[in-house]
Amino acid sequence: MADTDRTGMDINKDLQARREQRSETRRNQTYKAFLGNLAVIGSMNEEEAERAAVSVLCVLEQRLFGEEAAHLEAQLPGKLQDLLVRCERHVGKPASKFGRDGFIQMVSEDLGVDATEAERQIRAVFSAVRDQVSEGEIEDVIGQLPMDLRELWHRAI
């Protein structure tokens, strides 16, 4: 009887391990698809796409109030959520008000690019996020932004 129980426990452990592996594979595939889409939209390689996504979304989260940042993150690929959680730009900081120029300047400084390139990358990230997130969530995010920052979303690449 003990052998039967042990075998049953081993089977359950194997099933759980396979489920976790499939889940991690899906997380990786979703993340890779997001980065691939962003890389195509923004004409960048995958590493540049990841840096741009983290920078832009981290700065965006500094601009969002209430639970909106968490709502947006919930619809992003899990691996991207993990990177944002570790983003030092917004950890423990309250949301603040800044407009388009401040947003572009923060991304420009973070990525070490000029303002024109920063704006191009911001638009690319916003386009990739639009492909990933529900229209209702995009409208909620845009609703918290000043008009000049909304323009970056509306005129995304």
Features:
157 residues; Globin-like; DUF2267_sf; DUF2267; DUF2267 domain-containing protein
Provide a brief overview of the structure.
It is built from eight helices and no strands.
DSSP helix count?
8
| CATH architecture type | Orthogonal Bundle
User: What's the story with the biggest beta sheet?
Assistant: none
Number of strands: 0
Query: What is the CATH C level class, in words?
Result: Mainly Alpha
CATH topology: Globin-like
What number of domains? 1
Oligomer: single chain
CATH superfamily: Uncharacterized conserved protein DUF2267
Q: Indicate the structural class.
A: mainly alpha
Q: What is the percentage of strand-forming residues? A: under 5%
Order of helices and strands: HHHHHHHH
In terms of per-residue confidence, which ranges show pLDDT below 50 for 5 or more consecutive residues? none
Q: Fraction of residues in helices?
A: over 70%
Pfam families: DUF2267
Region (Disordered): 1-26
Protein name: DUF2267 domain-containing protein
Organism: Archangium minus
Verbal overview:
InterPro entries: DUF2267 (IPR018727), DUF2267_sf (IPR038282). It comes from Archangium minus. Pfam families: DUF2267. This is DUF2267 domain-containing protein. By secondary structure, the protein is mainly α. 77% of the residues lie in helices and 0% in strands.
